[in-house]
Amino acid sequence: DILVDGKVCDCDIVVTCQVGDPVPLQVKLTNWSKHSVGPFALTMMPYQDYQNGVHNYDLQDAITFVGSNTFYIDTVKPSKNSVYFGSLLFLYTGDFYLNIKFHEDNCSRDLPLSWLCLPSVHIRATEPVA
């Protein structure tokens, strides 16, 4: 489950936020398998989609993370979850997307080496209301 500014995100939702206000992020990984999984590194990767096949990941002048954009998850037991919190700060207006990528760091390979949480989260940064 992914929440941006307290709103559940899926492929049909565009979350709107204001430039200059920290936007809280919450990612909850639930293990629905019968075996423990992990360890993982969870990485949040913002980008802009130019709608021509080009994704711009070089956004250090437009978006910053409050805290880290990578979290380490030890092990998630069956039917349990692990929740991680962070914040984004948008410095400019625009439409941005957020990929959430899990990198497995376990030799048993219960999951593929790396997988993305798709579809990407769509966030629209707007001018602050005066």
How far apart are the first and last residues' alpha carbons, in Å? 33 Å
| Dominant shape | elongated
Binned, the helix content reads under 10%
Order of helices and strands: EEEEEEEEEEE
Average residue pLDDT: 82
CATH architecture: Sandwich
Per CATH, the superfamily is Immunoglobulins
Give the helix tally: 0
As for the CATH topology, it is Immunoglobulin-like
Query: Low-confidence spans: pLDDT under 50, at least 5 residues?
Result: none
The CATH first-level class comes to Mainly Beta
Q: Report strand %.
A: over 45%
Number of domains: 1
Structural class: mainly beta
Please give the largest β-sheet.
Answer: 6 strands, mixed
Radius of gyration over all CA atoms, rounded = 16 Å
Care to count the β-strands?
11
Domain Trs120/TRAPPC9 fourth Ig-like: 16-125
Protein name: TPPC9 protein
Organism: Vireo altiloquus
Pfam families: Ig_TRAPPC9-Trs120_4th (PF26283)
Explain what this protein looks like in three dimensions:
- This protein is an all-beta fold and 130 residues long.
- The chain has a single domain (2-126), classed as Immunoglobulin-like.
- 0% of the residues lie in helices and 56% in strands.
- The protein contains no helices and eleven strands.
- Strands 3, 5, 6, 8, 10 and 11 form a six-stranded mixed beta sheet that branches. Strands 2-1-4-9-7 form a five-stranded antiparallel beta sheet, with no helix packed on it.
- A hairpin with a 2-residue loop joins strand 1 (2-4) and strand 2 (7-8).
- The relative contact order is 0.31.
- The mean pLDDT is 82.
